[in-house]
Amino acid sequence: MNKPLGVLVGIVVIAGVLNTAGAWYTGTKIEGELKTSIEEANKEMAAQLAGSATHGSIELVSIETHLYSSTAHYRLTLQDDAEGSDPQPVELLFVDHIEHGPLPWSRIKTFKWAPVMAVSNYALEKTPFTEKWFAATKDQAPLIGQVTLGYGRSVDGQLELLPFDLTLDDKTRISFSGLNLSAQTDEGAQHLKAKGYMDYLKLLAAPADTAPVSIELSGLTLASDLNKSTYGFYLGQNVLELSEAQLTSGAAQSVLKVKNFEYTGSASAKDRLMSGRLTYSLGDVTFNDKPVGSAEMVMSASNLDIPAMQSLLQIYQNKFQPQADGTLPKVQLTPAEDTQVQADVSTLLAAKPNLALEKLNIKTTNGESQLSISSSLAQPASFELPPLDVVKQMLTSLDAKLQLSKPMIADLASVQAQLAGQTDPKQIAQVANMTSELAGVMAVQTGLANVEGSNILASLNYAAGVVNFNGEKMSLEDFVTLMGTRFGGVAPQ
């Protein structure tokens, strides 16, 4: 044997010995690592589902450990306690084939030679509950995934939902392209990055007593880049993009189509104060292939006291969960809870939060409307003061502007008439013009706005106890009296 070949063989032998030793060591730790991961997952699930009627848990049913691999079985249980829901919990079973590190074969053959603790290859198992799903994917596991666990407890995971065509009954059909998700976290999941993509989802329902309804979603992209805050929840950016959504409904099978929907949410914190911003946009809306318009909305908030918000949210979750019909239960706060709410509200206001609807733009073929509202709040000296005095101290500023386009109102009224079943072009145009003109007349008659050309205009500014309403200045008391007079209310005390 020549020397280079001997060195190479030696390296291979040594690597094999080290890998065997590493695999044995990993095998002795796998069960403990799994239990720790499941405990963390259950805590995170409980936090995410807090305040809802749904709760769930993951449990390790069994594990068989060998030198180079282990096989584990898990049970995911989901229960909905909402009134009127099915009392039987949903159970999903998973099998997990775990390759021990430091050099699992699945990584070696893809030239990923950095040592890792383990590679998990999991899949949904067939049960009576999931057998239809398996049938739709030709008896392949419809949900599969892989998770690589690093020695520093970093995680790199991929999840795949397989495509299928499923006929639930003679009236309902689902067609799904499949979905791919990937996520990476560092030790302790302090930093989380995730992305996902779905090509399409189509749902067709044909109830016996109504016209068929179909929904089609195309080109769904998800992305997140988050960091865990010191308060236990994630801050950062989330993005959702949808290339196209289509709804077909009604006796005439009218088609409402939305293109280029985008949602962006971002949040950050400095010390105990949080700021956030939400953006929604619709790039193009059509009805029966005729253009309707586009829209954009931007909302923001800053100086939000995190501990106070968490405390208020906890009380809300414990006391005011919506019932099955959507209404809030009639509950009474305990004296301690009432005191806590008042303290939390005071703390929130002491941080001087700012809330804003920065932009609401709706643009149609013939017009464009805009609305913006911004406000700043502060803590009043006492909530026992007369209501108007509390408002004066609590609302430090308010600025609102509205530009409402009459042609835009006519465009939307025309679409509404068609959705209601109108087909006569002359009648649709008449309804649209009447609606837009009526909006202008009502705005002027109520004194809430002015009409300039084709626009309905309104503005409201408040600061230091003075209100500027559509260019007319007055005290807050006079403004409240004016509104009460116009809408049949009661003058302030």
From TrEMBL:
Pfam families: DUF945
InterPro entries: DUF945
Name by which UniProt lists this protein: DUF945 family protein
Organism the protein comes from: Pseudomonas helleri
Phylogenetic placement of the source organism: Bacteria, Pseudomonadati, Pseudomonadota, Gammaproteobacteria, Pseudomonadales
